Amino acid sequence: MSEDRITEQLAFLAEIDALKSVVRQSRIVDRSRRENSAEHSWHLAMFALVLADDETVDTARVIKLLLVHDIVEIDAGDAPMHGNHDSKEVEARENAAAERLFGLLPDDQAAKLSALWREFEAAETPEARFAKALDRLQPLLLNTLTGGGTWTENHVTEQQVHDRYGPTIQRGSPILWRQAQDLVRRHFSDANDGL
Amino acid sequence: MSEDRITEQLAFLAEIDALKSVVRQSRIVDRSRRENSAEHSWHLAMFALVLADDETVDTARVIKLLLVHDIVEIDAGDAPMHGNHDSKEVEARENAAAERLFGLLPDDQAAKLSALWREFEAAETPEARFAKALDRLQPLLLNTLTGGGTWTENHVTEQQVHDRYGPTIQRGSPILWRQAQDLVRRHFSDANDGL
């Protein structure tokens, strides 16, 4: 490692500190505040460490995909799930963000981290599909633990939860989607009892 | 994966959400607030992904050590570096925390994650020593980026920085310590110029 190389690496690591200030829609379990994208990324990496262990995917690779998957939000912002977005515009913003942010690294590592991010986005490898499933499962779990969370705030119905979370979780892990459906069913049944 | 197994795994993943509410002493780079241990763990995992790449350590293992290294703080709290602690008491609290928290997982995974945490604490393997070095390097970098941060707050001298950060960083990565010393020297020299 040359000094210049480490200087570039530390500049990148200082810059991505800003992910701690990107605020998502989900509330943390104690409901005191909304979650930021840096702690969300840690939580997802822990989901991978625990849940990928029983799957036929490369756990370490799933973890790496999840560690980098939200870094582009530093420039491009978080696109909330239950909102309307121009997907072409989001994609253009995120591509520019990836170029600037990963571009702070030495060239070989810029290529490597960009490739991880693109692999996650493309959702074609088993690891990327599983990582995407976890990225849907985690806010689903948080919502069931916080009285409905973003579902309640956005008047999202049980059917909409199935439509918006189901395909991605099912594609990455059918068994996790089966179990998630139980959580969703129980949540909406309790919510209806409370009316 | 059985349903009971996933239920235990999700209970653990819900419980460790609380790491997002454990507040550390370091400020995030924009100085708006102190850092929490969950986002700190993500940041460290990124340090590993970028910096371990050039070392002779198993990067994936360093990342796993860092993802779990602070989980015991959920019960035991963070022990600030520049404070006085009864280390026996901290150790007892952290052991009890590890038993309760990792104990929420299925037995095989409880053993696995406890082993990762103990490996980090023991700092005997090259991966654990490198992880420990990053856990010192990250707050050092944050302090140099936030006008001295916890050093200024606690009247820590340049010599004390060397004594408290040097041995751990040096032991995990001599080259990173050489570069960190430059950052420290520059920080204290600028600070003195400002007097």
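qc> The two ends of chain A are 62 Å apart (CA to CA).
qc> done
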